[in-house]
């Protein structure tokens, strides 16, 4: 399969911001309450984690994962499914979609972690073998950073499985890798650099002695930012889908 077009990464990023603004009322109604509930739930689980035991902790974190997956699926369906109403569609099928989405997240994370691990260990071995010196730990940071960039590239190439799963398409990691061939850097800009920019801004706003209100507000803002990033990925998927539909 040969890709014949190039994604316009910055156009998609800008379009995701415009889309969030255009549907801001629906966007706020859909995101705010679930984000607050998930935030409170996470805070309670985190505070009582030491007293509930590992088995129950895993169950509670699994519920949190399903909740976050549900929210991601809703955001993607807002973009990709016409006349989609989030709460009217909150039924058993949404729970199944969220579970499938969470499974897909685990699959992608395993691949990304393996890629990062292989790159990190390979470079560490190379430097230790060919450039042996006592201060090897000084370059560990740069080796780790490089391996994370490669892992981020792999994540970008595999990330189309998320919006596809949200709209009930049966896809695989291999499918996403093949479809994004020739657009790896553009995908990395959308999936890697765009979130990194917002992460930098939000991280710079955190402070050590922040009040609980400030922490809650920043956490809710983080949910909104993640939702916008999901919008960008959904718009990216729509560009691929449109191209292949037109080419058939």
From TrEMBL:
The keyword Transcription regulation does not apply. The chain crosses the membrane at residues 26-44, 56-80, 101-126, 146-167, 187-206, 218-237. Keywords: Membrane, Transmembrane, Transmembrane helix. This is ABC-2 family transporter. It comes from Methylomonas defluvii.
């Amino acid at each position: 399969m040969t890709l014949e077009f190039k994604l316009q990464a910055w156009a998609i990023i800008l379009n995701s911001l415009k889309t969030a603004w255009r549907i801001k009322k629906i966007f706020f109604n859909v995101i705010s309450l679930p984000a607050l509930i998930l935030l409170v739930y996470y805070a309670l689980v985190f505070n009582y984690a030491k007293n509930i035991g590992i088995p129950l902790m895993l169950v509670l974190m699994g519920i949190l994962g399903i909740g976050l997956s549900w929210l991601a699926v809703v955001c993607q369906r807002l973009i990709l499914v016409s006349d989609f109403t989030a709460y009217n569609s909150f039924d058993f099928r949404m729970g199944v979609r969220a579970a499938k989405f969470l499974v897909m997240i685990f699959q992608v994370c395993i691949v990304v972690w393996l890629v990062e691990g292989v790159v990190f260990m390979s470079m560490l071995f190379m430097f230790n073998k060919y450039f042996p010196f006592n201060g090897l730990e000084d370059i560990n940071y740069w080796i780790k950073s490089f391996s994370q960039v490669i892992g981020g590239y792999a994540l970008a190439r595999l990330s189309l499985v998320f919006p596809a799963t949200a709209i009930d398409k049966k896809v695989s990691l291999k499918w996403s890798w093949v479809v994004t061939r020739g657009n790896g850097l553009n995908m990395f800009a959308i999936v890697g650099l765009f979130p990194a920019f917002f992460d930098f801004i939000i991280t710079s706003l955190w402070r050590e002695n922040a009040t609980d209100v400030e922490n809650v507000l920043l956490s809710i803002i983080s949910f909104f930012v993640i939702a916008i990033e999901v919008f960008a990925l959904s718009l990216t998927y729509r560009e691929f889908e449109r191209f292949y539909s037109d080419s058939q």
